[in-house]
Amino acid sequence: METSELLKKVRRIEIKTRGLSRNIFAGQYHSAFKGRGMAFSEVREYQYGDDIRDIDWNVTARYVRPYVKVFEEERELTVMLLIDVSGSRDFGSVNVMKKEIITEIAATLAFSAIQNNDKIGVVFFSDKIEKFIPPQKGKKHILYIIRELIDFQPEEKQTNIAQALKYLTNAIKKRCTAFLISDFIDKDGFKDALTIANRKHDVVAIQVYDRRETELPSVGLMKIKDAETGRERWIDSSSAHVRTAYKEWWDRRQAAMSDSFKKCRVDSVSIRTEDDYVKALIALFDKRN
Description:
2 domains, alpha/beta, six-stranded mixed sheet, two-stranded antiparallel sheet, Rossmann fold, 9 helices
């Protein structure tokens, strides 16, 4: 992409997403994620209404009455964006491709983080770690992230979400809030890696998908291509059996993904490319309050 065209796109994304994070979310981001980064302060005797998960069992055993740990909210959080840049993001059947929605969501979250005085970093991943941008603050840093979101060209096309989660667990030592933004088209499982990552960090999953991925139209013979492997095949979309089998595959896949998020205690939201992602993010934030 030419530099002048890239700068225009960066500016458009900046104007739109900065306005959304400033005017629409207006503190919802902070209230949804405050307290996720906590520093130990002291212990005190248990009081009615305290969370039993905060009980300090060593002190409790020493004094033979319950004591709880007191935490103070850290002044700044570290926010990581785990961005899927595999081949399947280059798809869209309406007016926009998945990668464009991913870019806008990521940019909106980045501006929200900066306005909350948080650091923001990015991991671009396919079936390997394509690029790591360490967490920093500042508008210059945000604009660099947006530029990379728009113009980054991955070396590989396939997906390995587990690899990205393992990298997050190992690379980021301090507890962070991590937004995993992907279509979650991954042939390998990532449940174990997600469980481990969410124990150390606060992981939030955001799925971006297209409606044509959920069901096939009845348009006769279709030549389809796997964007990640390059394999091609012909299917007869006029066959009710073919369309039903495809729909059932999608439903099973979504159910398995949702079950993984639930068992790993990971908050999640699914956003269709043609839908209002702002409403979806607000609903996600409200669910966490």
